[in-house]
């Protein structure tokens, strides 16, 4: 097995010599006397650990450390300094240093700390490998999805997580943008720091500035005391701006300045406050279209989308529906102290529905079905009418005017689509009992059956069965 490489970055030849002599029996040693030389050495030497002095001639060690973390490097850095004060040590640890030693230490202590950091780094690399494997198998934190587009999103999120890059998450409401943002934070060097989320669509323009930037006492009517904003609360961690496409123009300008300057000012205040936050934002809106319409700043858009990740709607990866449904059934079952399973017909109905509310709607639908389920099996009768009705509408909600025929120029095609939508809805609301439905809508039972055959309407889960005799839960008329 090849030796681990340690890069010593120190401008004093005597200090480099002492460190080399202490470690060269166990490790391969590389040296650099400036930050510039250290940067050049990284791709050539590929170090496993860096011993970094705080004071260097061209640039201080803390700046180099900050640059490393901004590049996404997770290399363990052991700061070595003659400064025996708390401030540089605290700053180094805040920036992501693994440890801090004051010169004058015992050589055995140095060897022990280096060995410990390399062991910890090896464990972290193994954990990262296992996380990547789990993502490849269709799981990313609390998110599940084996479809190719979901795996691509998970892989990209896993790659960007260790960096400090600004991320823009795109996707319809209910696709899990908030969960993805949380998991990116959890996999970053900021994981131990705050994750602060703000829903920009839920706050009126008059309040969002105060919420984001805070305010001083007396800044406006009702401001009885000073309040820190979300930027300050997230200092050192991650700020997640959900539905940023709904943010007003004035706030957009202030957010842009905060990103560029890494500073904010509270409302009613004059003090400039430095903030160190990683920004993740999300929206369901088409931001380029919003820019063309003059509702969103183009310069802010480019600041936000350093890396963009798109979460697909659930209807585009329906093969994941059974996987998600089973996971939600287990989740809700554990919480309620109940055990249940899906019938084939129920699973078929879940797969065939278009899920306009995406994963969030599916999760709520499974909770509802478990609450209503009388036994240990969830059947179509435990699902909502919307799910059963939507099955025959080619992937769109039952309320769609286009699917009901209103968008058709040809009268006969419009009538056919209306009859499908109308009869499917009437049957679903009566648990697919043909006799009850026929009586309710004023048709003879035989006439309704003939119409169902003519239109090709089948009860969910019975598409391959050449019959429409689907009266009641037992399949018989009462």
Question: Helix/strand-derived class?
Answer: alpha/beta
Largest sheet: 5 strands, parallel
Radius of gyration: 30 Å
Query: What's the helical proportion of residues?
Result: 40-55%
What is the CATH C-level name of the largest domain?
A: Alpha Beta
Which superfamily, in CATH terms, is the homologous superfamily of the largest domain?
P-loop containing nucleotide triphosphate hydrolases
Number of strands: 18
Give the CATH architecture of the largest domain. Answer: 3-Layer(aba) Sandwich
The low-confidence runs, each spanning 5 or more residues with pLDDT under 50, are 391-403, 463-467, 472-478
Taking all residues together, what is the mean pLDDT?
85
- The figure for the number of domains is 4
Strands of the largest sheet, in order across it?
A: 2-1-3-4-5
CATH topology heading of the largest domain = Rossmann fold
Tell me the overall shape: elongated
Assess the beta-strand content as a share of residues: 5-15%
Q: Total helix count?
A: 19
Write structural notes for this entry.
It is a single chain. This protein is an alpha/beta fold and 478 residues long. The chain has four domains: 5-129, Response regulator (Rossmann fold, 3-Layer(aba) Sandwich), CATH 3.40.50; 144-309, 3-Layer(aba) Sandwich (Rossmann fold), CATH 3.40.50; 313-383, Helicase, Ruva Protein, domain 3, CATH 1.10.8; 397-478, no CATH class. The chain has 19 helices and 18 strands. The strands form six sheets. Strands 2-1-3-4-5 form a five-stranded parallel beta sheet, with helices on both faces. α1 (13-23) links the parallel β1 (5-9) and β2 (28-32). α5 runs antiparallel to α6 (148-160) and α13 (321-336) crosses α15 (358-372).
């Amino acid at each position: 097995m090849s030796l681990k490489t340690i890069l010593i970055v120190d401008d004093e030849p005597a200090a480099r010599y002492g460190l080399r002599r202490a470690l060269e029996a166990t490790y391969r040693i590389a040296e650099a006397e400036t930050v510039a030389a250290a940067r050049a050495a990284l791709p050539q030497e590929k170090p496993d650990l860096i011993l970094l002095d705080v004071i260097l001639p061209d640039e201080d060690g803390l700046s180099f450390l900050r640059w490393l973390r901004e590049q996404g490097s997770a290399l363990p850095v052991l700061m070595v300094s003659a400064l025996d004060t708390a401030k540089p040590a605290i700053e180094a640890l805040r920036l992501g240093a693994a440890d801090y030693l004051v010169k004058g230490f015992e050589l055995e202590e140095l060897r022990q700390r280096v060995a410990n950091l390399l062991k910890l780094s090896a464990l972290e690399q193994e954990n990262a490998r296992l996380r990547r494997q789990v993502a490849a198998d269709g799981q990313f934190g609390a998110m599940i999805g084996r479809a190719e587009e979901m795996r691509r999103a998970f892989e990209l999120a896993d790659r960007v997580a260790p960096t400090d890059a600004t991320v823009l998450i795109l996707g319809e409401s209910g696709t899990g943008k908030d969960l993805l943002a949380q998991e990116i934070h959890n996999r970053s060097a900021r994981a131990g720091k705050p994750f602060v989320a703000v829903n920009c669509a839920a706050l009126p323009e008059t309040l969002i500035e105060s919420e984001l930037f805070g305010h001083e006492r007396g800044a406006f009517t009702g401001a009885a005391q000073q309040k820190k904003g979300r930027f300050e609360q997230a200092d050192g961690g991650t700020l997640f701006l959900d539905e940023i496409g709904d943010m007003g123009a004035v706030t957009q300008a202030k957010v842009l300045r905060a990103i560029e300057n890494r500073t904010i000012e509270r409302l009613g205040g004059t003090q400039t406050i430095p903030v160190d936050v990683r920004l993740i934002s999300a929206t369901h809106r088409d931001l380029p279209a919003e820019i063309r319409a003059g509702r969103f700043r183009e310069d802010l858009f480019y600041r936000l989308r350093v890396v963009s990740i798109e979460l697909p709607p659930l209807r585009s990866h329906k093969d994941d529906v059974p996987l998600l449904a089973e996971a939600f059934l287990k989740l809700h079952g554990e919480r309620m102290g109940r055990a249940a399973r899906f019938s084939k017909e129920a699973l078929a109905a879940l797969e065939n529905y278009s899920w306009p509310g995406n994963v969030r709607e599916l999760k709520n639908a499974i909770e509802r079905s478990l609450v209503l389920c009388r036994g240990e099996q969830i059947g179509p009768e435990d699902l909502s009418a919307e799910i059963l009705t939507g099955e025959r509408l080619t992937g769109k909600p039952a309320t769609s005017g286009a699917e009901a025929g209103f968008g058709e120029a040809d009268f006969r095609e419009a009538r056919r689509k209306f009859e499908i939508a109308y009869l499917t809805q009437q049957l679903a609301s009566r648990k697919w009992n043909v006799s009850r439905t026929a009586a309710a809508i004023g048709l003879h039972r035989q006439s309704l059956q003939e119409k169902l055959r003519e239109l090709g309407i089948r009860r969910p889960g019975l598409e391959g069965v050449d019959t429409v005799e689907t009266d009641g839960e037992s399949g018989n008329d009462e």
